[in-house]
Write a structure and sequence with these properties.
The protein has eight helices and 13 strands. With about 250 residues, the protein is an alpha/beta fold. It has a nine-stranded mixed beta sheet. It is globular, with a radius of gyration of 19 Å.
Length: about 250
Amino acid sequence: MRLLISNDDGILARGLECLERAARPLGDVWVVAPDREQSATSHSLTLHHPLRPVQLGDQRWQVDGTPTDCVMVAISALLPDRPDFVLSGINHGPNMGEDVLYSGTVAAAMEGLALGVPSIAVSFAGRVLRSDDSLLEDHVSTLTRLLDHLTKLPDFPADTLFNVNIPAVPAAEVKGVKLTRLGRRVFSDSLTKMKDPWGREILWIGGGSVAWSGSEDSDFRAVKDGYVSVTPLHLDLTARDRLDDSARWWLPL
């Protein structure tokens, strides 16, 4: 089995290293990742300058582009054959609820899916600090078992990727794995006004507080309760229930 690994935290990210270690027992691993952090780049492509892949080692490349660029370049130009799976992560922080619309980690998996390759995105629902590397590394063997299970599903869902979120607890304290749906989250005070050195007003996006909501089977509840959350996602954003009741609201021209 050939596995393509990418991420949005960059080629030097600790989470990428842990995902590599988790994946190597499963097959032939190739790594193609951004040369720098690309968090919140979503499913963006680089259109206004050429991409320059740089080979760092055997089956290991960095690309001066987005996570989506990396997966596209890897499948179209760098790998000798199409991968059997695209794995993205491990992200330094959770990707739940509306996060999946912004996340470069999820976007890399979505690009694999768009190119016809089954894909899995993995995130760690805690901070990844050098002083706390052991907490993430503690999950490597558990993640190997989970990836082994998902990649061997006899009927891996077509046109679907799995979005995995690992709780920020030691592996021995994980209560299990739950199949979940996306929750909802609201950011408060995430836009900060400040001044640059010349006294001009600038706006900085980030920080603030997050309020979560959702059903009992939502991703954030599972992670909060100490479970690994696995959420199936697909590219079709059609609101199908609105199609079903269109007779009530549709105004024909």
